[in-house]
Design brief:
Blueprint lengths: L1 E3 H7 L6 H8 L3 E3 L3 H14 L4 H14 L6 E4 L2 H8 L11 E4 L1
Parallel strand pairs: 1-2, 3-4
Helix pairs in contact: 3-4, 4-5
């Protein structure tokens, strides 16, 4: 299991409630967002016609998902945008990122 480093921004708040998140993070790989991945996320936003801060975070998560060995399951509360961001029409369906609402 992997998580994009940007997801930490969405789930950590600096309080005692973070303990559960830290326990989970100790079991997963946190993928850093470097300049190349950030650039790829911006280009992805341009290709699918999305913009804004929330979409920027989603695009960084999408680039992490797209870079993983298949099969890939992406858990999200925003299935509409994440499906657009991970769409790969040139790939066989069984190899595409599966987006699931949580």
């Amino acid at each position: 299991m992997v998580v994009a480093a940007t997801t930490l921004t969405e789930v950590l708040r600096g309080g005692s409630r973070d303990a559960t998140v830290h326990r989970i993070l100790s079991e997963v790989t946190v993928v850093p967002i470097d300049a190349d991945r950030a650039r790829a996320a911006g280009e992805l936003l341009g290709r699918v016609g999305l913009s804004g801060h929330q979409c920027a975070l989603d695009a960084m998560v999408a680039t992490v998902a797209l870079a993983q060995r298949r099969p890939v399951v992406l858990l999200t509360s925003d299935t509409e945008d994440m499906t657009r961001l991970t769409e790969e029409p040139g790939r066989p369906r069984r190899e595409r990122v599966e987006v699931i609402r949580i």
